[in-house]
Amino acid sequence: MKIAIITGGSRGLGKAMAISVAAHGQDVILTYQHNKQDAEAVVAQIEQSGRKAVALQLDVSDSTSFPAFRDAVKQALKQTWNRDTFNFLVNNAGIGIYAPLAEATEQQFDQLVNINLKGPLFLTQILLPLIEDGGRIINISSGLARFSGPGYGIYGALKGSIEVLTRYMATEFGSRHITANVVAPGPIATDFGGGAVRDNAAYNQALASRTALGRVGEAEDIGGVVASLLSDEMHWINGQRIEASGGINL
Ligand code: NDP
């Protein structure tokens, strides 16, 4: 049994990842920002499947809170598993803000940077000593790092940056046999972006028609990809970007 920390595990992709990772036999620490009740419901679902799970509060956009979060992780590891280390870190929590480049504000830029780039970097840094040698890091990017979605230029640029950082993580952490990879989802029907992919039928259909498989993704599509990447068989994949989009813009 191994232990995965998944940020943003209360809803959407992170929830599906937590459930799928547990179904693959791992235990989970999942984080939430505001929705404690939703996070605890995910914990209960995982516990019903016979695995252990803990929910911890975390604001990924506030790096001053990271030392206290690290201490909470240490405490959870000790209390629940009698361990000092965990195995997998999935930097999933992120937000999108519609901000066309002609109008985007510095405040929007800073908000996006803090949660989508600065947060995952410094969270990884502070948790790194707690990741067991041979562990794995997965950073969640987006198809928008590679193709344009008008209004999402800053978001896409930051997702591109996390992809570059991931390659450097793979290079710099390799001496400890820790791998780092990116999963880049295509459009997925979640609350993300105000739920536009899920709730706006015309937008959903337009995106679906750009995929080879003819539909947008569901959170579970990505949960399975992440759980598979954390399986023993995938240990030789390192520094790579896996796009999970049903084949968009091929
Ligand atoms: P959701 O909006 O459905 O869920 C967001 C999750 O992140 C929630 O668990 C939320 O916690 C948490 N969260 C939000 N802000 C913060 C914060 N400041 N600190 C810590 N946690 C936070 O998003 P998705 O599941 O759709 O997206 C997850 C990831 O996937 C993001 O990185 C996104 O960029 C990426 N992605 C999404 C795509 C999509 O189409 N949905 C496509 C490509 C990439 P709480 O419930 O407490 O608010």
Automatic annotation (TrEMBL):
Pfam family, one: adh_short_C2
BP terms from Gene Ontology: fatty acid elongation
Keywords of this entry: NADP, Oxidoreductase
Recorded GO MF terms: oxidoreductase activity, acting on the CH-OH group of donors, NAD or NADP as acceptor
Keyword rRNA-binding: no
Protein family: Belongs to the short-chain dehydrogenases/reductases (SDR) family.
Protein name per the record: Short-chain dehydrogenase
Organism (species): Reticulibacter mediterranei
Source organism phylogeny: Bacteria, Bacillati, Chloroflexota, Ktedonobacteria, Ktedonobacterales
